[in-house]
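Service request form, structural biology core

Requester: graduate student, group of Dr. S.
Request type: structure prediction, single chain
Budget code: on file
Notes: please return the result as structure tokens.

Sequence provided:
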Amino acid sequence: MTWKKWSHSDLEKQFNPRAAIGEEITTILAGWEAASDERRVELEGNFDIAYGDHPLMQYDCHVKSSDKLIIINIHGGYFRAFDKSGMDSHVADLIKSGFGVVNINYPLCPEVTLTSIVKTLGIGISHVMEYLEAKGFNQKVVLLGHSAGAHLGMHLSHEPVIRKKLVGIVALSGVFELGFIQEISIQDDVHLSDHEVNKLDCLNFPPLLGPKYYISAGGDEPSAWIDQSWIMANLLTKRGDDVTLHVCAGAHHFNLVDYLCDGNHLDGAVLKTWINALCKE
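Core staff response, request fulfilled:
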């Protein structure tokens, strides 16, 4: 891709959302935490269900029999940061739209490798699906991921245990190629190997053929970051997948999630309608 010809500083500005947004990032993330702390009381169900020994191998389950569909949410953080708890406000918004939500955590780099994260989340998804079945929840499933979570959701689509229930994948401001990570400061934490770049790049190893795809980026994001969503959508469309590509005007890497998880927001209502349509298939 064209990024291979760019300077280090250009790559950092284009592919590191923290660098692109600047000092405002601290306020944005503090806002996510505060909103989640305030709205966590709205969330019924079970928190911190363990699917392994590591303290981050846990998920929350906010699902009822009356829910139209179950969304499995995978947080972002460039494989090295964040926690499911910081998205509880977004989870509350999705629940208000009539969806059940499973919100999953996973161990992070540099403690573990990206290869390990993918394998660990495979274990997590198996545990989630077994838990839902044991509870009598048989609704269809959508994988929703933000940023690195979008990348991970693409890989999780191949897990055998989820294939029969998986009807859609929502990728919000996703990172799908991996090679440029080796050229920017994120590599200091992620330590991607050449083998991982070749094996886990979503252009080399695309997601499952069959589910519908909703791929979105913020209109105020760097052009190369928006291109990540366009390139992924283009690959899937040429393959024969049913793909919706949505560039959300005026949104950056983080408030894109605020807008699209809120069914009362103009752009969120579009996504809500798309997910509702999957319930009828």
